[in-house]
Amino acid sequence: MNTKELQRLLKKYNNKTATPEEKQMLEAWYETINGQGAESTAEETVQLKNEIFGQIKSKIASKQVQPASKSRVKVLSLLFAKAAILLAIFSAGIFFYLKRTDSNLYTSIVKRQKTTIKPGGNNAVLTLADGSTIILNQAADGQIGNQSGVSITKTKSGELVYTFAGNVNAKNTEINTVSTPKGGQYHLILIDGTHVWLNANSSIKFPAAFAGNDRKVEVTGEVYFEVFKNKMKPFIVNTSQSEIKVLGTHFNVNAYDDEAFERTTLLEGSVELKRGPEKTILTPGKQASIAKSSSHIKISDIDDLEAIIAWKNGYFQFDHADLQSVMRQVSRWYNVNVSYKGSVLNKEYSGKIPRKTTAEKLVEMLHYSGIKCKIENNQITVNP
């Protein structure tokens, strides 16, 4: 079995189409390296993994797999449920890692870490119309503000909810802003019932109540919307590059300043997107990309829409992403600086990793794909 066949097997596991025998083999491999790798020397670790790799090849090829004991299956199930890791290994990562003979393996790097860099979480700041601010992760549950008849409440689950509390001035234009720092995310519900999720280092500016004939908001960073349908009041999202007009739909906007393209992806409904003189209509499963230096709107098909909003559901998910794209996401979520030592490899990575993983564990996983990282203080240094 060659590398491509092993990649196909990993893909089947992640897509939940692997046979029980194939699943057992991969889970056994993962349990072995997860439990023994850190205690072995570099040479022993490489030898162990080469042995397991050979067993996987021969057993799958011959389809002669011995059934696992009930206790072993239970242990494996608990291991995967607790870690919430869906075989978090990048494509080609197993083969790449097993074939390495470099003694500078991830185990020695992880052992040197004296501190743990925790993943991001619900962390945002609400700025009211008068300029006052509320740190939402520190605010008590319940009503935390009132904007001319609009009540602002923080729920027990950490959401921010805007509701009518009395007579609202029809000309109310009090603008609020919710912003997340690096290492933050947040979910809020606007006065019209629209749900908004902010990724790390993102923001949304909006009126406490929507007056006039439309519902306008401004965003930066990455934001996912589930817009409440109202044919009489279109919902308009403005970014630094474009205007997105919808009636009721689900879509994701990625408008980070450090990304080469602004991308709008439609999951449900339809949207009208404008960039300068150019205008287009998106349908579900389509993505519009706009380069920062161009007004041209490029439309492409997206096969896996769940991958686009994986961040909202608690995962990093990469699909043929370059190294710098992967590390930009890591930098935002863990609030760390990333630097590179040496030239950056022209290589693509695919995989799925839980965002609740610590930075140290993430570095451990990245090593399976040949991405060698070192953590010192609040800095990740990548040595491609």
Automatic annotation (TrEMBL):
Pfam families: FecR, FecR_C
Keywords attached to this entry: Membrane, Transmembrane, Transmembrane helix
Domain FecR protein intervals: 177-272
InterPro entries, sorted: FecR, FecR_C, Ferrdict_sens_TM
Transmembrane feature ranges: 75-98
Ranges where the Protein FecR C-terminal domain occurs: 315-382
Annotated PANTHER family: PERIPLASMIC SIGNAL SENSOR AND SIGMA FACTOR ACTIVATOR FECR-RELATED (PTHR30273), PROTEIN FECR (PTHR30273:SF2)
Name used for this protein in its record: FecR family protein
